Amino acid sequence: MNYYKEIKEEIINNEITKKVKDYSKNRSDLETYYKVGKLLSEAGKHYGERIIKEYALRLKKEIGNKYSYRTLFRIRQFYNLFNEEKVSTLSTQLTWSHYSELLSFND
């Protein structure tokens, strides 16, 4: 038995599995935030801009602090950016953290 070869294969398989999971999670996050952004945009048209603050407060109570006003605002901004650009597919090379940082720029 070649122990080194077995050890190397296990490590490589684990690294591949982690990359696939990371890719899948990132894609899921981006797709979810795009859909949520669309819903926030539509809700804002019907109920006004303050609806994001209201939803953030409700989500904070029901889910936790992760979905603050700022986060929901960025999610809607993310949707608006890609909706305006008519982008048919979302880039999987960037994560939500990357997009969140980029959205803070005005231009």
Please outline the helices and strands.
Blueprint: H1 3-47, H2 51-62, H3 69-84, H4 96-103
Helix pairs in contact: 1-3
Supply database-style keywords:
single chain, 0% strand
Briefly summarize what is shown:
Helix content is 76%, strand content 0%. It is mostly helical and 107 residues long. The chain has one domain.
Order of helices and strands: HHHH
According to DSSP, the number of beta strands is 0
Distance between the termini: 59 Å
Strand content: under 5%
Structural class: mainly alpha
Instruction: Give the helix level as a range of percent.
Output: over 70%
Query: Helical stretch count?
Result: 4
Mean pLDDT value: 83
Rg computed from alpha carbons, rounded to a whole number of angstroms: 19 Å
Point out poorly predicted stretches: none
The rough form would be described as elongated
Number of domains: 1
Summarize the biggest pleated sheet: none
